[in-house]
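Researcher: Next entry in the queue.
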Amino acid sequence: MILLAPMEGLLDWVLRDILTRAGGVDRCVSEFIRVTGTLLPNRLFRRVIPELDSGARTPAGVPVRAQLLGSDPVCMAENAAKLAALGPAGIDLNFGCPAKVVNRHRGGAVLLDEPELIHRIVVAVRQAVPRAMPVSAKMRLGNADGARAVECAVAMASGGAEEIVVHARTKADGYRPPAYWDRIRTIRESAGVPVIANGEIWTVDDAIRCREMSGCDDLMLGRGIVADPGLALAIRARLEAPWLTTSEPLVPWPALLPLLADFWHMLEKRVEPRHRAGRLKQWLHLLRRRFPEAEAAFACVRPLTDVEQVGRLLAGAFDAAATITPLRAEAV
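Model: Structure for this entry, 332 residues:
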């Protein structure tokens, strides 16, 4: 099984749509919805997860679980129950976010110092949502260190989490390489529920090593699949035929161009103008890791801030060789 990771500020419903169209992803998790002491309105849930209005599936048919983040068991349970009534593919609980603004308010990865509280949160949410609705959790190896990683995973599992994703770094590690995939193995052996490995999987070779070191069959992909939308397909191909290897992306640049265009059109419909160009630059920046053509595209888009200029560039600057032709400022 291959899951698409939630990434605040990057991997939202727009990229969920695009990347699941590329193929190979079994399930998505939404970016976190922060619970801070109030019962949130349905419009907020739908804003983060518009797929709730289409059976909690992306247009490609991939199910989406809703992720909640918070530290109050009662409030988390009440919001989980309200969210569950909208029909997500499951409820996921965030115990891994390393963001300082979240951690200062006792959310995300800092809770990995409090396994007893984690247990209470999971128990409360599990009791609040229908029995048939899956409840899962995502964690890091720890806050400052990984000393309590197994204890936290057991707290989640004993509280009713049916599945745990482990990002193989502590909060203190941030997103700095490497990811410590080998440390997931002990968690998997102790938790008693399925464990999914996550963190620093950029290539098929990374995925194979992660599976071997962690002992996990299932993976969650984040920045790696944003940089290479064909990564999930390539991992599946290698697992099915290990003797076949290729350095070429399974979603090549010419096939990616229509997805880039659709990405921009969705931003035009649902994202404020002041954020649109930044979102495109963000994706092109990551695509540069895999596609030389993205380097030229990024160079063209980078100086632009006016959304009409960006739109005209995307509409008319792709040449027959599927690259972006640099334009003079007066041309746009």
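Model: The first strand starts at residue 2 and ends at 4.
Researcher: Noted, moving on.
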